[in-house]
Write a structure and sequence with these properties.
The protein is an alpha+beta fold. The chain has 6 helices and 4 strands, in the order E-H-E-H-H-E-H-H-H-E. Helix 1 links the parallel strand 1 and strand 2. The longest helix has 19 residues. The radius of gyration is 19 Å and the shape is elongated.
């Protein structure tokens, strides 16, 4: 290998296979680091406790759009971990066990920017105009219930958790 580290942000769940791990292993120097990161509204599992009190509304919003994801690979579904678990079970694994840290933070967004972020999700972007409009109306209802009267220019604090995962080439 020739590289000391590789980083993949917001994407590994799309190509989480043994072949991918083998490719990273071949490209990394001995002891090189494979780093993966995801930024998720409210955290990976959408469970209470990953955000501060008063920010739980994010789960209500997520429930509105996550119903559309079907079988689309998603970080929050944790299927991306399978190749690492399979690797760890081998007599000669390619990588050390995964290490991880979760970093909660808040991003300020206007309601309009928040809706546009939701609409960038592949399983929402492919919905028709009427479905996206209905979703936007339902998101606004949740926001109005939490923040009282809001419009598209209102700035809200959106809770996120960034998960950083890494391992080293053996």
């Amino acid at each position: 290998g020739i590289n000391a580290e590789y980083g993949v942000a917001q994407a590994f769940h799309w190509f989480a296979t043994r072949a991918s791990l083998e490719s990273f292993h071949a490209a990394l120097k001995a002891g090189g680091v494979l780093l993966l990161a995801w930024n998720m509204e409210g955290g990976s599992d959408g469970k209470e406790g990953q955000v501060e009190a008063g920010q739980e509304w994010i789960y209500d919003v997520r429930h509105l759009y996550e119903v559309y994801d079907g079988d689309v690979p998603q970080y929050r579904k944790a299927q991306w971990v399978a190749p690492f678990n399979e690797d760890a079970a081998l007599d000669a694994p390619l990588f050390t066990p995964l290490e991880r840290v979760e970093l909660p933070h808040v991003q300020q967004k206007t309601v309009d920017a928040f809706l546009k972020m939701i609409f960038t999700k592949s399983y929402i972007a492919r919905r028709n105009d009427a479905e996206r409009a209905a979703l936007a109306d339902n998101v606004r209802k949740v926001l109005n219930a939490r923040f009282e009267k809001v419009d598209d220019s209102t700035t809200i604090d959106v809770p996120y958790v960034t998960e950083v995962v890494w391992c080293q080439k053996k």
